[in-house]
From TrEMBL:
GO terms for biological process: L-serine biosynthetic process. One of its GO terms (molecular function) is magnesium ion binding. Coiled coil: none annotated. Its EC number is 3.1.3.3. Its cofactor is Mg(2+). It comes from Caenorhabditis angaria. This is Phosphoserine phosphatase. GO terms for cellular component: cytoplasm. Keywords: Amino-acid biosynthesis, Hydrolase, Magnesium, Metal-binding, Serine biosynthesis, Signal.
Length: 269
């Protein structure tokens, strides 16, 4: 089976991993399902089977990049290269203790880094993407920033037009001048911004009927709905809040690939 692959990245910053990070309307946690009736185990299994069915019949799949398609976090790697890794980590920890907007946390980290155009180019030239095992085989059948993602897309054979990401802005001298706040991926917290907005755009503009979001973070889970299903991924880092609220949670891309072998006639209905 072959489906359209899209890469969506927001260079995830300060994503809370508390239970409140993922709206209950997105998914039902194991604990919640069990408390509703005595057949919690059956209900959870049924929910997982439904996600698997949607995965098998999807005609577009959106992947997060950091800690999903790639083993590391691009912004952390860039910060370390610039010599401000610990400072950026401190900003992240401070932001994660509150409930600030994604855009504010992103701006705070970039303000510490302030990468120039030359520094970004040098970083890209010397840094080889660390792909998560199994992703190339799966793709053979999607915040971060576009310049950091293009090399990953090229390795996976994903067209540049299928990348949805943020853009770092530079002035005429190549100095850091902020980031493009008009990009859908530059914010989160509502269905009109972030990954939910990208999914809605894909459905409205390109007519994709069934879209699945795969990722490790709260902003990935936030994309469903409008995505028809969310698959939590913990192959690189396990975020317990996301895991508990994922109807299907995997730690190996091979599991997703093998599930495509189970397509039957009911999946086309």
């Amino acid at each position: 089976m072959r489906f359209l692959i899209l890469l969506i990245i927001m260079m995830r910053v300060a994503i809370p991993t508390t239970a409140a990070a993922v709206p209950r309307s997105i998914m039902t946690s194991s604990a919640a399902a069990t408390s509703e009736n005595g057949s919690g185990g059956t209900k959870i299994a049924t929910a997982q089977e439904e996600v698997k069915r949607i995965w098998r019949r999807a005609n577009a799949v959106c992947f997060d990049i950091d800690s999903t398609v790639c083993q590391d976090e691009g912004i952390d790697e860039l910060a370390a290269y610039l010599g401000v890794g610990e400072a950026v980590a401190n900003v992240t920890r401070n932001a994660m203790s509150g409930n600030g907007r994604f855009r504010e946390a992103l701006a705070a980290r970039l303000q510490v880094m302030k990468p120039s155009a030359d520094q970004l180019e040098q970083f890209i030239n010397i840094t080889k993407p660390k792909l998560t095992p199994g992703i190339k085989e799966l793709v053979a059948l999607s915040g971060g920033f576009r310049r950091l993602i293009v090399p990953v897309a090229e390795l996976l054979g994903v067209e540049k037009s299928h990348i949805f990401a943020n853009e770092i802005l530079f002035d005429k001298n190549g100095k850091y001048a902020g980031f493009d706040t008009t990009e859908l991926t530059s914010d989160s917290g509502s269905k009109d911004t972030g990954k939910p907005a990208v999914i809605s755009l894909l459905k409205k503009k390109f007519g994709y009927k069934t879209i699945v979001m795969v990722g490790d973070g709260a902003t990935d889970a936030e994309a469903s709905p409008p995505a028809d299903a969310f698959i939590g991924f913990g192959g690189n880092v396990i975020r317990e809040a996301v895991k508990q609220r994922s109807n299907w949670y995997v730690t190996d891309f091979d599991v997703l690939r093998k599930e495509l072998d189970h397509i039957d006639s009911s999946d086309s209905e």
